[in-house]
Specification:
Helix content is 33%, strand content 25%. By secondary structure, the protein is an alpha/beta fold. It has two domains: 268 residues, 3-Layer(aba) Sandwich (Aminopeptidase), CATH 3.40.630.10; 114 residues, Alpha-Beta Plaits. An eight-stranded mixed beta sheet has the order 1-2-4-3-5-16-6-15, sandwiched between helices. It has a four-stranded antiparallel beta sheet with strand order 10-12-8-13, with helices on one face. β3, α3 and β4 form a beta-alpha-beta unit.
Length: 389
């Protein structure tokens, strides 16, 4: 297995790629410049099997090893940015107003490109590697991961296992974190409309005030976690949107509430869908209001399979040593649409240290280029571990 020093020579080139992508962020599925950049780089590495236009701007490229017949494993990087005004003040800051790579997908793309260049030149493995460059990780349903899976990439490219990686601010550069089983939570979203009877704010007795009722519902939903679920289990219910009247002197006819549900257990998703509706309707009807409810299962739990987790741990430890790999990292309730790929194929998702940077989705965040050789080295070691010739 190779140490990280093997990949120092590609760091400067990968840094150039990363910073170019950072300066030119694109959103969702509209990754036309990004996809062109990636496809051209892959072709320049001597990779002949490159399929573009998957889920609009996604790419899958195959590298055949020289070790003989064997399975195909998938390595996935997400490519899209976020609708955020950048405030990092770096020389390579976004040149596109209102868009920035605030989650490090520019780094993820650069690391997989670096691994692709190395693997295409050495081909020291059997079977094949499918490089999956995914659009639209950050968007609501249908996300890019879901659409690529629905488009049949696992069967079409014969992928038997699939692996993902994400940078982690606050974790030291050169360190990795992973765990067996759930590593990131599911994401469900809900919308509630409280329908009352509006009127003048000076005469609330003539109304059925949906603002007051909405406030009662918001408080009531918190008891679903604190009083109706096992405290050992993980459930988060957060109300994140509230829309009512736009004037000081109006009690509106309706109030719109929206929020998100995060958990590690599918049974708690069922519980949340059932109990949010029951609680909201009970409170609303008690005050004479009606309630409309919509609930969407957005992203499932990101679940690491045991074999894939062990392979990932081995690859990371061979790169940086056992002490730099936390194999029982704390689970995050954030969601990740790589979960759809892990639902269709076994594999694992690992976290890569990004150092003491701002958190992801923050205007001052920037991917740490010092992490690039570690991510590239991890991908290469993983391929040479899983597909040992």
């Amino acid at each position: 297995m190779r140490s990280v020093e093997t990949f120092r020579d590609v760091q400067s080139e990968a840094t150039e790629w990363r910073r170019y992508l950072h300066q030119n962020p694109e959103l969702g599925y509209q990754l036309h410049n990004t996809a062109t950049f990636v496809a051209e780089k892959l072709a320049s590495f001597g990779i002949n099997h490159i399929e573009t236009g998957i889920a609009e701007t996604g790419i899958v490229a195959l590298i055949q090893g020289e070790g003989g017949d064997g399975p195909t494993i998938g390595l996935r990087a997400d490519m899209d940015a976020l609708p955020i005004v950048e405030a990092s003040n770096k020389p390579w800051s976004s040149q596109i107003p209102g868009k920035m790579h605030a989650c490090g997908h520019d780094g993820h793309t650069a690391m997989l490109l670096g691994a692709a260049k190395h693997l295409a030149s050495t081909r020291n493995f059997k079977g094949s590697v499918a490089l999956i460059f995914q659009p639209a990780e950050e968007v609501e349903l249908p996300s890019g991961g879901l659409r690529m899976v629905q488009g049949g990439i696992m069967d079409r490219f014969g992928i038997s296992q699939v692996f993902g990686m994400h940078n982690m601010p606050g974790m030291e550069i050169g360190k990795f974190g992973i765990c067996d089983g759930p590593i990131m939570g599911s994401q469900d979203d809900f919308d509630l409309i409280v329908k009352g009877r509006g009127g003048h704010a000076a005469s609330p007795h003539r109304t059925i005030d949906p603002v007051v009722i909405a406030a009662q519902i918001i408080i009531g939903l918190q008891t679903l976690v604190s009083r109706k679920t096992d405290p050992i289990e993980s459930l988060v219910i957060s109300v994140t949107k509230l829309n009512a009247a736009r004037a000081y002197n109006i009690i509106p006819d309706r109030v719109e509430i929206a929020g998100t549900v995060r958990t590690l257990a599918p049974a708690l998703q069922d519980f949340a869908e059932r109990e949010i509706l029951a609680a909201a309707q009970g409170i609303g009807r008690g005050f004479g209001a009606d309630v409309e409810f919509k609930y969407r299962r957005s992203v499932p739990v990101t679940f690491n399979h045991t074999e894939g987790t062990n392979l990932a741990i081995t690859a990371a430890r061979n790169l940086v040593g056992p002490a730099s790999v936390d194999d029982n990292i704390r689970v995050s309730m954030e969601a990740e649409d790589f979960a759809y790929m892990l639902e269709t194929r076994p594999g694992a998702y690992i976290m890569l240290g990004n150092g003491p940077t701002a958190g992801v989705h923050h205007p001052t965040y920037d991917f740490n280029d010092e992490a690039l050789p570690y991510g590239i080295g991890y991908w290469v070691n993983l391929v040479e571990t899983v597909l040992a010739a």
